[in-house]
Every structure is written in structure tokens, then in C-alpha cells.
Amino acid sequence: MPVQTRIETEDHGMNGEFELAIERVIRASPQTLWTIWTERTEEWFAPRPWKTRVIEYDLRPGGRCAITMTSPEGEETPPMEGVFLEVVEHQRIVTTDAFAAGWVPQKPFMVAVTTFTDLGDGTTLYRAAARHWDAETMAQHEAMGFTTGWGAVADQLAELAEAA
Q: Would you say the pTM of this structure is higher than 0.90?
């Protein structure tokens, strides 16, 4: 069984000021969502018809989180490189691109906070949030299509989880 690490976090005055988030109630358990999220990432992580390739998912605080995406025309994005900050099995995953593996600083864009909240009736509240350092970066992410893109991948995740 993977090691579970929980870091108690506080708001630190952010109050969601620079956060973009999507939520879905999904007809699946947190365990099922966790499995799809962590083991079948390539099937749901990019809005179709884009494709995702996981380079490495080392699911532990400080572990490498690296993926790349391929457009319908076959162009591959540069690797999206970061680290896992917090991993609580079936509950919470926090990543950031502020560091590459080995705590090597790089220009940050966001901290992603994904939660799986058991609603007790066979459903889970899935929440994926992107926390940004400033309003400019948040606006840039919004202009890139945050709501449409992250909404599409949440729907794709739900589709897989509800069929499992």
C-alpha cells in the first residue's frame, strides 16, 4: 500500500483570490476515481482529440510529475514538469510546476489541488483547482480555456469512472 502523507494546509490569506476550479459530482467511489486518476491518466487528462503521455508519476511528496500532450496534428508539447506536494490516497493530490524533480526551482505557473470527497451515497465530489501566484497568471490560464479544458477532462474522468 502506498505511503499516505497529509500536509495540513491553511489559506494563508489567499481566500481563493487567484484560484480557478471546476467541480463535478461523479457516480463512483473516491477509490474508483483515484484509480482512474492515477493509473489511467493517459485516457482522460487532455481534452479529446488531444492525447496525453505520462512520462513519470512518482506519487509521493517530492516525486516527479511529468506529462506531455499531443495535438490532433501530431505536435507534442514540451513536457509539463513538476512535483507532487501532497498525496493522500483516495482523497487529495497536490502538484506544482514551481519545481522540477529534486526540488529544482523553475518558473511557476500554478499549484493544482485535486480532491475526491466521498458524499456517502455512492458518489464523489471531484474538485480540481488551479491556484496561481497572481491575477495576471490566473487571467492567462482563463484565456487559455481553463473552464472548457478542465471541464472536458473532468467529464472524461467521470465517463471512465462511472463505467468502471
A: no
